[in-house]
Design a protein that fits this description.
The chain has eight helices and 14 strands. The protein has 362 residues and is α+β, with helices and mostly antiparallel strands. A hairpin with a 2-residue loop joins strand 7 and strand 8. Helix 2 packs antiparallel against helix 5 and helix 6 runs antiparallel to helix 8. The longest helix has 47 residues.
């Protein structure tokens, strides 16, 4: 590869963009200086424009599926996702062969608006994405020295893309961890509430907020007969039946579960990469191994992150409720002792101050 990525543009010592002329070396370095994914994509657009390439898509690849990340100009007609197995001409890119020219068949593909060439976007762990360019391309751009300039742009873009994605992934992980820690600390505040209704309201409101839901209920086992403990919003008769059914299932499973709004299937295990739209999701309220209640939320958005957050809330709520119940029991016993003491004192006052004496009796 040429040491000068702009060796293919010897006739353009400076590139005019947006009324400004940028030095080739500065223009080259600007990609590496991009601080966000949006900035990087804009720099890529500026770089490709200098080669008279105006229409392109950037797809990120994961598990055989390419997801549209950035579009510029008159580009694809896809819905944002493509299955690479449906486009054999793109498959060599996954093996690191780049660039790949679109053949006559792929040019008429219903997904693409005539694609011309595609570049692999490598990363240390494999191919991270695909750059697809549309429209007609001058033949001299595909031959040295111009091809070296394009290769340099794509290579530098790939390096910067990997670095920015890694940084953003770490930043998101940190933000999630911080938010989760805040939620956990917030959940612990429930332990200091002294009124049962306040506890139930705090648990339910926090859970609904995390799940993006408006309607829900906490069902408690107050007397061995499961009944409504606290609710927010109005239920339909169908939702009430659904709640009753999922309460029974939750008591059996002893873990969070949901009914998928699209498939109607139950799910009782969750992974980090999946987001579920749930017609109902339920959480057991567990304290010291005993299920004391079930929280249900309707029309919720469920991920592993908010599952863990809501579980922290329900655990704190269950402990707070049990502590409240224990305090009520202690207070009840104290009142009984006080009542017995009062009764004993009243009886004592009814007794004479000394033993009675009778004449003639010794």
């Amino acid at each position: 590869m040429s040491s000068d990525p702009w060796s293919g543009r010897r006739d353009h010592p400076a590139v005019a963009l947006g009324g400004e002329e940028l030095d080739r070396a500065e223009f080259y370095r600007s990609i590496a200086r991009a601080e966000s994914l949006g900035d990087l994509m804009q720099q890529l657009a500026r770089a490709l424009t200098s080669f008279d390439l105006h229409d392109f898509d950037v797809f990120l690849v994961a598990e055989g599926e390419a997801v549209l990340t950035f579009s510029r100009g008159r580009t694809s007609q896809s819905d944002g996702k493509i299955a690479l197995r449906d486009h054999p001409w793109l498959m060599p890119l996954l093996d690191g062969h780049s660039p790949v020219l679109a053949d006559a068949t792929s040019a008429q593909d219903a997904i693409f608006h005539p694609a011309s060439i595609a570049f692999s976007l490598p990363a240390p762990s494999g191919v991270q994405g695909v750059l697809i360019v549309y429209g007609l391309i001058e033949a001299n751009l595909l031959e040295p020295p111009a091809a070296h300039g394009l290769d340099a742009i794509v290579e530098l873009f790939s390096i910067a893309l990997h670095q920015i994605r890694r940084h953003e992934t770490l930043q998101r992980s940190y933000q999630r961890a911080t938010a989760k820690l805040d939620e956990f600390q917030d959940a612990q505040s429930i332990l200091f509430l002294r009124d049962k209704r306040e506890i139930l309201e705090a648990v339910l409101s926090r859970a609904l907020r995390n799940l993006g839901a408006m309607t829900g209920s906490i069902v408690l086992d107050d007397t061995g007969d499961w009944g409504a403990g606290h609710r927010r919003g109005d239920f339909t008769a169908e939702q009430a039946k659904l709640l009753a059914h999922m309460v029974d299932s939750c008591l059996a499973q002893r873990r969070p579960g949901l009914i998928n709004s699209l498939s109607g299937e139950q799910t009782w295990s969750f992974d980090i990469d999946t987001i579920h739209m749930a017609s109902i999701v339920v959480f057991p309220l567990v304290d010291r191994g005993r299920v004391i209640g079930v929280l249900g939320a309707f029309d919720a958005t469920v991920s592993l992150d908010n599952i863990e957050t809501v579980q922290a809330t329900t655990r704190a709520g269950a402990t707070a409720i049990e502590n409240w119940e224990a305090q009520q029991t202690i207070r009840h016993q104290e009142r009984l002792h006080e009542q017995r003491d009062l009764a004993a004192k009243a009886q004592q006052r009814l007794l004479p101050a000394r033993d009675p004496s009778f004449r003639g009796l010794r």
